[in-house]
Design goal:
Blueprint lengths: L1 E4 L14 H20 L7 E6 L4 E2 L8 E13 L2 E6 L4 E4 L4 E10 L5 H12 L7 E7 L7 H14 L5 E7 H5 L11 E5 L7 H9 L12 E5 L14 E5 L6 H12 L1
Parallel strand pairs: 1-6, 2-4, 2-12, 3-6, 4-7, 7-8, 8-9, 9-10, 11-12
Antiparallel strand pairs: 4-5
């Protein structure tokens, strides 16, 4: 369940001594410039995206001009020959005008990875692009090496079925970005390295970041996925364009403020 909150319309004042037509023209030009800057990502950097997982989240307090929301919209379980699609069941509130990214989580359990499962998965994800206010799709799938061919074919089929202007993002294990560049050639706009819950790779990845080295995969270089409960060394300037932030607890204004302070100051 997703609900948006209405906001009051901006007021335009008529300044004395300037003709109404000239004033409207000036305001229109300024508005167009601001919109262009916003869509180019030329505003506050890095762009912060809050992950909202399967729980109630109230994000009414965020500034939608500075913060986007990536919400878990659907969980797809591939088990044997079955494809089980579970929609989001928890409410999410956000300000009107928020940029939304619909996230599909894929999980497998002895999956056949058949053509039928591929088609059903693509159809379930493609439906998310039709939801109002959704400007991008993100896939969260920790694919094993034996599942990569299925994943690549699924992404290729999905890209062909999505609207041409719809951005396609995936989350990526840190090892995919550092050692094993199998991401090359995928029809995606970005891969977000998941720099938390890394298990045995944690120390190696932290050391890699601390030395200022870049990720081997170019698709991994513009975004980082972080968590509020696992601090990481800051990457060297200029840093990532996008910070995706996970919180194991419901988001609060204080938690968001900490993320902004950590990555924008």
């Amino acid at each position: 369940m997703i609900s948006s909150l209405s906001s009051s319309a901006p007021r335009i004042f008529h300044k004395k001594g300037i003709g109404l037509g000239a004033w409207i023209l000036a305001v229109t030009i300024i508005a167009m410039v601001m919109i262009a800057i916003h869509h180019r990502g030329g505003g506050v950097r890095p762009r912060v995206v809050l992950w909202s997982w399967e729980r109630p989240d109230n994000l009414e307090f965020i500034n939608p001009r500075e913060i986007a929301v990536a919400f878990l919209a659907r969980t797809i379980r591939l088990r044997a020959d079955e494809t089980i699609v579970k929609p989001r069941l928890q409410p999410l509130r956000f300000p009107r005008g928020s940029e939304l990214i619909a996230v599909a989580r894929i999980e497998t359990e002895g999956a056949a990875l058949s053509h039928t499962q591929l088609e059903t998965t693509v159809s379930a994800i493609n439906q998310l692009a039709r939801q109002s206010n959704v400007g991008a799709i993100q896939i969260d799938f920790d694919a094993k090496e034996s599942e990569r061919l299925f994943y690549r074919e699924m992404l290729q089929t999905l890209r062909q079925s999505l609207p041409s202007k719809m951005r396609l993002s995936i989350t990526a294990l840190a090892s995919w970005c550092i050692h094993d560049d199998w991401l090359t050639g995928l029809p995606i706009d970005e891969a977000v390295p998941m720099l938390f819950r890394m298990g045995v790779e944690r120390d190696e990845v932290k050391g890699h970041l601390a030395t200022g080295r870049t990720f081997r995969s170019r698709l991994c270089r513009n975004s980082l996925g972080v968590s509020t409960d696992e601090p990481l060394p800051r990457p060297p300037a200029p840093g990532p364009d996008n910070i995706y932030a996970f919180n194991p607890r419901p988001w609060s204004a204080a938690a968001v403020s900490e993320i902004l302070k950590e990555w924008r100051e």
